Amino acid sequence: MKTVLMKKSTMQTVFGQDGQAVAATGLFSGNCFFVGIKDKEKDGYDSFLLGFGEKRKSNRAYLGFAKKAGLKILPQKIVEILPEEEKLEIGQELKLEEIFKEGDLVSVTGISKGKGFAGVVKRWGFHGGPKTHGQSDRQRAPGSSGPTTTPGKVHKGKRRAGRMGSVKITVKNLKVVKVDPENKLLWVTGAVPGIKGNLLVVRKTK
Question: d(Cα 106, Cα 100) in Å, to the nearest integer?
Fold first, then answer.
């Protein structure tokens, strides 16, 4: 198996195998289970279902998945991933140390931090207008949006002010610095998307 569900835990300095201090993010593996599959004949497409975490109460869909998989605990979250060649038993736990080792490269997918409504300077890095020549209130303004009479509108896709963040992001080629099976932590170089406690899909790359 090459894909596991984890949670963003913490960031700190970690010493790698070569003794170098590296800024790393700790990913908590928790309880990650193989819940089941979806096949093309019945559901229209192929996918694997992974369950993460544990909670006391759940909705009927999750209860159905847990009952079918024979899980003793109710998963907190069920996520669909691309199918893999690995043959797994329904209800099998995915263990951190059996999948990753130090030096592996991984890609991490998650929802980025929401920034709310942001202007063009913060959202797109616009420089704003000059403060001189009577333009003291145009320092963070977007400026012209395009043509005037023809076509008389702003084209779609222009970089304007709007909602920033809270989108699905994949960070590729993060190096595994340390594997800690006792604390169920996987340390990777650099930063990963989202806030602390955010659910992430960690995929081992070639």
Answer: 9
Amino acid at 76: Q
Picking from 145, 195, 206, 205, the residue whose alpha carbon sits closest to that of residue 3 is 205
pLDDT in tens, 43-79: 888 888 888 888 777 778 878 877 777 777 788 888 8
CATH number for the domain formed by residue range(s) 32-93: 3.30.160.810
Torsion sign over Cα 81, 96, 57, 197: negative
| Residue 200 pLDDT greater than 90, yes or no | yes
Decide: 160 and 92 in contact? Cβ < 8 Å.
no
Helices (H), 83-157: 96-99, 120-124
- Confirm if 106 and 187 have CB atoms less than 8 A apart: no
Judge contact between 163 and 119, C-beta under 8 A.
Answer: no
At position 131, the amino acid (one-letter code) is: K
Q: pLDDT band for 93, please (50, 70, 90 cuts).
A: confident
Question: Would you list the domain boundaries of the chain?
Answer: 1-29+94-132+159-206, 32-93
Please give the helix or strand (H or E) that residue 52 lies within, else none. Answer: strand 47-52
Give the integer Cα–Cα distance in Å for 42 and 40: 6
